[in-house]
Write a structure and sequence with these properties.
Layout: E1 7-11, H1 21-30, E2 37-41, H2 44-53, E3 59-63, H3 80-85, E4 90-93, H4 96-101, H5 106-119, E5 122-127, H6 131-135, H7 139-150, E6 161-164, H8 178-196, E7 205-208, H9 213-220, E8 227-230, H10 237-244
Helix pairs in contact: 1-10, 5-7, 7-8, 9-10
The structure holds phosphoenolpyruvate.
């Protein structure tokens, strides 16, 4: 089985207006040759504009969440089909800010993964432990439990990635040590192989949590790290490009 192609995805979270598309265009313009796939995931309001701005470039566009249902009376929510229609090809699901702030369970995340597959979107499924869970020695059990609960069997044979994002490392400037990252990524890989057989080796496992140009090379070259999900550092083209160049 060959090594999965690395994916570097930027999560703009609830940041950005149309003027911010200049940063997205600068990423595409500065990309050069890279072995990585690159994606930017803006707010739903910007997906269509960004997809238009990045058409004919190597930078893909993704959503940050979707509703499981394809349509209906769900005020304020966005369906996977709408995200796809706006020009996205990927979608982040189960981000810890959704799990914590919106009560998303593994079962709900799994239903959103099915919605993404139905719509033809490639899911990036996020998992990660809190600081309390890490201190209690529960990180591996929590993360592998989230993988089992959030990834439906229907992912077999489909393109997707898992993003390991320790909750305590997101936006804090803190990162786990490289051996800590490797320990979790190996446990995720073993779980994917248990669930999907040898096909469980085909998808990249991204690391996310305070990745920046200065720590990207060490993180991205760690065992079983197949890319990064980047928050704050994805808002500035120069920083995001610095991370992509570290692949
Ligand atoms: C994220 O929220 O997905 C993330 C990784 O954020 P940051 O890079 O800012 O820690």
């Amino acid at each position: 089985m060959t090594t999965p192609q690395p994916l570097i995805a930027g999560n703009w979270k609830m940041n950005g207006v149309s003027a911010s598309l200049a940063e997205a265009k600068a990423v595409a313009a500065g990309l050069g040759s890279t072995s990585a796939r690159v994606a930017l995931c803006p707010s739903a309001t910007l997906i269509a504009q960004m997809a238009w701005a990045l058409k004919d470039t190597a930078v893909a566009v993704g959503g940050q969440d979707c509703r499981a249902e394809p349509s209906g009376a769900f005020t304020g929510d966005v369906a996977a089909e709408q995200i796809k229609d706006a020009g996205a090809s990927l979608v982040i699901l189960g981000h810890s800010e959704r799990r914590a702030g919106h009560g998303e369970t593994d079962a709900l995340v799994a239903s959103k993964v099915l919605a993404a597959l139905r719509a033809g979107l490639e899911p990036i499924v996020c998992v990660g432990e809190t600081l309390e869970q890490r201190k209690a020695g529960e990180a591996l059990a929590v993360v592998t439990g989230q993988v089992r609960g959030s990834l439906p069997a229907e992912l077999a044979g489909k393109a997707y990635s898992v993003a390991y994002e320790p909750v305590w490392a997101i936006g804090t400037g803190l990162t786990p040590t490289t051996p800590e990252i490797e320990e979790v990524h190996r446990a995720i890989r073993a779980t994917l192989v248990e669930m999907f057989g040898e096909a469980g080796r085909a998808m990249p496992i991204l690391y996310g949590g305070s990745v920046k140009p200065s720590n990207a090379a060490e993180i991205l070259h760690a065992d079983e790290v197949g890319g990064a999900l980047v928050g704050g550092a994805a808002l500035k083209a120069e920083d995001f490009l610095g991370i992509i160049r570290a692949v």
